[in-house]
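Suppose you are handed a protein chain with no further information: no name, no annotation, nothing but its sequence. What can you learn? This example shows the usual starting point.
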Amino acid sequence: MIRLKRRSFLFLSLFGVLSNIRPVMSMEKINMSDTEWKSKLNDQEYNVLRKHGTERPGSSIHNYEERKGIYQCVGCDLTLFNSEMKFDSGTGWPSFFDYLPNALAFKTDFKLIFPRKEYHCARCEGHHGHVFNDGPEPTGLRYCNNGIALNFIPD
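A reasonable first move is to predict its three-dimensional structure. Written in structure tokens, the prediction is:
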């Protein structure tokens, strides 16, 4: 298990260098007005990223994506996940067991009365989904993402 974590760390470190992922400290935040976001995003993207909506389960083409590549935020093109982190959770939404360093920001969501851990793009603060404790090893976490909030870039 330690070996897997070391390999994952080395892979993520190498991937970060190769894909020019910048640390949060040097990452320039994207601040746009609501009107600018509405003109940049389609109605569904806007609802999820800016209004914390949720797409219908099973509606995302990313559920069935099996090629190698990366997943970027549709709002700002920041790379959030790679295909090695993706797994089929059976929930109807693209799911990942980990994320790339400095890609996500977190907050607690009380919309369903009980607290849930919500995550956003670290650059544009677009809402992507929630984190659950029922994912596979090595993290045991499931980052349940709205597919409409992602762009897939194949290798």
